[in-house]
Amino acid sequence: MTDAHVVGSGIIDFGEKYEWAFDDLLEGAYLDLVESVDHGIEPTKDIDAIWYGTLDIANEGSSGASVAHATGLFEKPATQIVNACATGSDAFRNAVQAVKAGDVEVALVIGAEKMLDSTEGLIGGAALERLWRGRGVTMPAFFGMRATRHMDQYETTREQIAEVSVKNHENGTKYPHAHQQFECSVDDVKESATVSYPLNLYDCCPVTDGACAVLVTNDERSREFTDAPVRVAGYGFSTDSFMRGDDLALTNFPASRQASSMAYERSGYGPDDIDVAEVHDCFSITELITYEDLGFCEQGEGGTFIDDGVPHLDGEKPVNPSGGLLSKGHPIGATGVAQIAEIFEQLRGEAGDVQVPDAEVGLQHNIGIGRNATGAVSCVNILER
Amino acid sequence: MSGPRYHRTREQDQRLVAFECQSCGYVSFPDEKQTCKRCGDAPATFEEVQLAERGEIKTFVVQEYLPDDIEVPQPLAIVDLPQADGSGESARVYGLLTETELDELSVGTEVEARFRELFDDGERPINSFKFSVPREVKR
Ligand SMILES: [Zn+2]
């Protein structure tokens, strides 16, 4: 069986892109990819299949035909992946599996979301007709409940949770594609408006339009596109729910533990081998508990981990050098793909002002909740240069 | 659809009836199922059990931003409701709270299920349980 390699990436600047139609987002990321492949690409000839991630929040991009329409890549298999906020990563994982299986030689993975064209709004989408399973449970509430219990159980402080947002906003000011380009302090986070106690506005990622694409191929063809391919060393995907009764699911995400265990096992790497990580920080607390779920620190020690500066850009294990979802933004279908693109750049030494020195192994982590607000889907991919 | 989705669990919503997996002891509420969320038994054997009206807050939030037709602040908790006869495991549920004062609420606070109007769907009031801190427990 062949390995799968990332050999190119393309992205548009994330932000409020009112002037851009949904198709323009896809086309922009696709063109940036086509124009940046080191040795060039003839897309209609080279690309065998497309995995396309979008929740289609704007309601104008459902089905693989939409991505063909936006890019001109017709007459090929094009599969839309929908898996809550882990949509982009799961599109990537599916492409990797097909390449590894030998069924596809060159796969385009592309994700996009036009969050600002949502007709219903994400908060409105939370008002379900389910009395016991999430009527009115918003995403800030879902994650906020983990914060409340983590603070109670492990004496994690409000300041430690806020530090995640401070760190990621600082990184975001150095990352050219980030939506929110400003720094904030712990006090700014604590004094911003309460969205869902204990989380405030600056604990939450912004509402952002965006798109990103990566190119995946096999051993044989990887050098055709670049002298510096990035190997996909492992991947994992899992689901779990707090309703299964495990207390761990009240503070953390067992699905992330399962997915990362799978990825570690497949890759032969462990948490200590990871030089740089892009993780899901839809809210500040999410990143803090993810340190624990990925095994970067012991259970309950996420607060100390950030207090000690370990996940900072100049720390021992930099997490979210791109600014994460908190600063870069979270255009759902694009989010996971953009995390992969950032790890790709990091491992090739092309990450500019947020470059982690000598990064050889990188991890990408993306979770999703969806309207079944009881647990998470979690996807972890490990890449190496 | 012949009626709103919330009518499907009307019986459980009004009587706190739950279903205990005979393989692993998992208590399913309000879903009456043939497969078990915890052990994966399929088909699983479930027995009907009665939940107590007093439970414990496992964690909570107070929501400040919600759609216009939902009142804020809206406190929301994950609550463990034990079985009425004290046997077996608790059911773990989402519950709306009546308290909005943060100093009344903490992880571990005892709460009581009270039958209330949850919302009006335009035709009729929809009644089910909301959780309150019992007077003798209040600080
Ligand atoms: Zn069971």
Automatic annotation (TrEMBL), chain A:
Signal peptide: none annotated. One of its GO terms (molecular function) is acyltransferase activity, transferring groups other than amino-acyl groups. It comes from the Archaea. Residues 20-218 form the Thiolase N-terminal domain. The keyword Transferase applies. Its EC number is 2.3.1.176. Residues 250-369 form the Thiolase C-terminal domain. One of its GO terms (biological process) is lipid transport. Keywords: Isoprene biosynthesis, Lipid transport, Lipid-binding, Transferase, Transport. PROSITE patterns: THIOLASE_2. This is propanoyl-CoA C-acyltransferase.
Automatic annotation (TrEMBL), chain B:
Residues 48-116 form the ChsH2 C-terminal OB-fold domain. This is ChsH2 C-terminal OB-fold domain-containing protein.
